[in-house]
Amino acid sequence: MGFARPAALTCGVFSVFGSLVAIGRSEVTNLGYHHLREQPAFPGPWEGYIQAPENKTHIVPKRVYKTEGNTEYWLTDGVISGISLGPSGVVTLKFEQNIGGRVCLDINSVSHNPVIQLAYSESSWFAGIIPDATTDRQDRDLPLVLALGNSTGQVCVAPEFVRGAFQYLTISLPFDINASGERYATKLWWDAVDAVGQHLLGPFSWLLSRYLDSHKAPGQAVASVDIANVWVNCTAFPSQTNGRAYSGYFSSSSIMLNRIWYAGAYTLQLSTIDPREGGALIDYNRLVDNNTSPTGSWYSNYTIANGTAVTTDGAKRDRMVYAGDMFIAIPGIAVSTWDMAAVRNALDVLYVHQYEDGSLPYAGPPMGWHHEFSDTYHMHALLGTYYYVLYTGDFDWLRARWPQYLRALRISIAKVDDELGLMRVSSSNDWLRPGLGGHSLEASAILHAVLTRSKSLVGWLDKPNEVGWEPAGDLSVLGLSTNETERWTWLQLTLARNIAARLYCPSARLFSDNLSPENHCDSPTRVLPQDGNSWVLISNLLSSSPLSLPVTPLDISTALRARWVKHGAPAPEFPNVISPFASGFELLAHIAAGQTSSAVELMLLEWQHLLDGYGFTNSTLAEGFRIDGHPQYPAYPSTARNSHAHGWSAGPTGVLTAAVVGIEFLEPAGRFVRVSPELTKWLGWVKGGMAMPDGSVIEVGHWRVVVFGGGVRGSEGRRRERKGVVVEVKGSKGVKGVFDAAKLLKEMSRRQYDGADESHFDFTLTGETNTTRTKRWVVWQDENDDNNDSMELLSNGERRKRARVQDISDLELLTTTETNEDDDDDEESWVRSRVLVLDDGVSELRYDDEFVLPEMEHREPGVVDWDVMERHFKTPPPAGWTVDELRQEQQPGREEWRDL
After folding, report:
1. Are 700 and 771 members of one domain?
2. pTM of structure
3. Which segments of the protein form a coiled coil according to its record (predicted)?
4. Which of 502, 528, 658, 751 could be a cystine partner for 510, CB 3.0 to 4.6 Å?
């Protein structure tokens, strides 16, 4: 059945993993979190956005997408109840979401030993008899062949033929191929058909149907098959028996942002796999297992880690652990599914394969055996270590890995040039972008960020039970030399000084990629990278630079935003590419610059296209796409190779929870949190929540309000309308943190906000009932510039400055008859039902219905530079291929796009 499993893979290849302590479902207690939830932590109407299937063991197609040739099918109550395929019959089935797993068929009847073929595709672009691609050696994968013989009943593909991601499944019955025929040869069948799967290769370019007809012998018996049912047993997110039991949630007035948050969460789920089902790069696997599988074949049975689950780069490919994904993926997993066991297993893979010199591998097995390395990914592994410990508080694991962490950190520190004060990278490997090398802006800025977080890790290890830490005393027990953390601070100053002095380009108000002559600020070939400039803001290095630069974080944020095109933020360091990975950094950059509205706007541009653009899945997030919106990822000549469920694209999931809902862990395991919400100009209301390692939860909601009824008495004693935002924090008893109103105060200011208002309010959720474990504040919009209007008249006739933030936890909360929030199916009515009665007993705070969503700015699509794109392909084009083939691909019209 299908291709034989290479002998070298039958027993696995990783005996070296015997020293690795892995986490399975039964061992999650080691994380301080007893198990993954069987039911959602926050049930509610937002569960309608969850893409994970109701029953992961039995996923059925949504509909018949198309048929060709000798095919019939039947529907019962709208559900496919039978398919009949005769000679040359083809049926393509469409699933509700991008899914992954083992395909199973219920066979009713067969004749003449039929051999069917299965072809998988994530994108509608390649829904047909030839699959999309995991291979990097040719345009498309081989179809999977199932020889049915005379058997009926249930037939499932072999376990090694799990397909990691697909939304379209094509079942075909080639005209003259049967199990007893002499000409049964899948490789020859592939060689006979071009990449589109419609014409015979050769000087006459025959139609496929003519080829089939010409090869039928007179009187030849033809095969057929009747299929009762088709379903998929999803093997992704193996730690979760209920894939919809999220430990966090997000809900807002923007349907698109809701879809984006849950698409990111599901992308991370689909990319979390059974470690025994990894390694989609068959040709790369050969370097380790010496397999002889035909080029273009595919399977997923390469053991990539220990344990029962591991997070990987992508569901279809590469199904490997890449260090670079950690910075984006870990926060997204923490706020959605909490599958942190899969995260720890992924980090362990990298540390187990740490090279003798202290370097961490570019990726886990099959890499890690031949010193595959990337300076940037090496540091991403260190950032992943920080975020794993921040969310879980797994200090035992950190202590065990700390010596390796220090060795790895010192590798990066040693690459800072003593003379030029910038990190000089030794590897050009990164996120497939070209041009990484020399004294790198991106690498230097990432190192600055790593050093900040490394000091936090030292503090947590030194005094794990204290909130806040300053370096003091003897830290040699942690393997640190005298004053080593102080030298880290000095190195950060050195990096900041030299990035500012050597790489800043004043005319662009951005930084250049490196110190090479072609990247000089005056050079026409200079590159002002998206990734490096984003990391300048993420690392906060401008504030630590001793140089006085005529540039602010706002200037950089504004310059990045000015480059956007219709479908998102281009990456100049990788021409023709829009990368959700690099754009995930840009989201964080805008937030660091105090421009959360720009971050949300970018989500509504780029990630909306990743969901609704033609050729995408409407459920998961792709690896990247072309600057004109086409679903080709320009790292590869074949559009079919793009991964449409890639964890590095899930940045908005973590960002929306942290920066918009406003839940951030300031101390490990959430023992102290910051609530720093911001609606931005794009939202009328938002709420969300997440669980913590000990099973406690925190939930934050905030919404625009206006005073109804008595109003607010101004300085002249007159009644006036007043607007603001109510922030509500609910959670388990004992949750501690600080409400930081600074972003809302700035957002609600109609003039330049001077930061003078009190903005930080410590809180502890106490009490035995949910009502008493709730804190509320109102942040008022500032008054007009008239100084008298900023004052309020007290009962004794005195005046005082009106507080812009007020604790209103004691105000009476009315729930109107519009809804019961506990069993409401309408998200919007939740906020409309919440009425707070002010102290005068007459005035009420109600949702502000006057909020109007602004229009999105018009932008033109990006323009492809075809010659440059061809120069930067990371995989070789097949023989005879020309870039003109891509030029000729046309996207269908809007109506066809809607149908697809």
Report:
1. yes
2. 0.90
3. none
4. 528
